[in-house]
Specification:
Layout: E1 9-13, H1 18-29, E2 33-38, H2 41-51, E3 54-57, H3 63-74, E4 85-88, H4 111-132, E5 141-145, H5 158-180, E6 184-190, H6 212-222, E7 231-234, E8 242-244
Parallel strand pairs: 1-2, 1-4, 2-3, 4-5, 5-6, 6-7
Antiparallel strand pairs: 7-8
Helix pairs in contact: 1-6, 3-4, 4-5
């Protein structure tokens, strides 16, 4: 690589564990510079030490903290250039994983839990796009982690499903405008993945889960996918991902 050409620069949210951490590892292995963003300073710092990524604490549901992150990127201290790959991955379910499944139902949702989940799952994507899109050059790519629950019913956690439907709708709706800037955007919609947000009650002996590394491979590949604005479903590690199109979408 020429000394005048910077490597790819990734920003990954929800980077301290699960799919985000697997993507940080994969991107670093590819030679990219990576800014790992998460509120968990202990795990985020450990991941940075392990991989050589940079870690910054940021609550993705706080617009002010996103603006502070952009100020950091604009500073001489960062010396990273414009982001080329953005993975908006941070996500939580409506209740902690160790509670009974009844706590995930609409009737059990507290205002605090509801506000926090929407802040991470929806505001985290909206604010990330609002603050980072002005920095992007043609050829940049964005992947938002949605969920199969963003396309189909998920009766265990209806409010989580609602939040992920919002992500899918945003990705589909932004794609035409971003295409005029030669920027792609994708929604990755996996089925069951063994991460920290999965309710413990769902982890039965018969349940089958993909690993975060399985999905990291999809994220890496989608950054080069030109068919933008689509919802990419992965149900199992041994089956290919596929697109579920919005009604009326006949492109591609």
């Amino acid at each position: 690589m020429s000394a005048n050409i910077k490597p790819e620069f990734w920003i990954v949210t929800g980077a301290a564990s699960g799919i985000g951490a697997a993507v940080v590892r994969a991107a670093r292995k590819s030679g990219a510079n990576v800014l790992a963003v998460d509120v968990d300073q202990t795990k985020g710092s450990a991941l940075a030490e392990e991989t050589g990524a940079l870690y910054r604490s940021c609550d993705v549901g706080d617009l002010t903290q996103w603006q502070q992150l952009v100020d950091y990127l604009d500073s001489e201290q960062a010396d990273l250039g414009a982001p080329t790959r953005i993975h908006l991955n941070a996500g939580i379910q409506i209740a902690p994983p160790n509670v009974p499944l009844s706590e995930y139902q609409l009737e059990a949702a507290t205002l605090e839990r509801y506000r926090r989940m929407m802040s991470v799952n929806v505001d985290g994507v909206v604010f990330g796009l609002q603050t980072l899109l002005p920095l992007l050059a043609p050829g940049a790519a964005i992947v938002a982690t949605a969920s199969l629950a963003g396309l189909t019913p998920y009766a265990i956690d209806p409010l989580y499903a609602m939040s992920k439907h919002a992500v899918v709708g945003l990705v589909r709706s932004l794609a035409p405008d971003l295409a005029r800037r030669c920027i792609t955007i994708h929604a990755l919609c996996p089925g069951a993945v063994d991460t920290d947000i999965i309710p413990h009650a769902q982890k039965t002996k018969d349940a089958q889960f993909m690993t975060p590394a399985d999905l990291a491979k999809d994220v890496m590949e989608l950054m080069a996918e030109t068919e933008s604005g689509k919802s990419w479903v992965r149900l199992r590690a041994d089956k290919p991902r596929y697109v579920i199109r919005a009604p009326g979408d006949k492109t591609g």
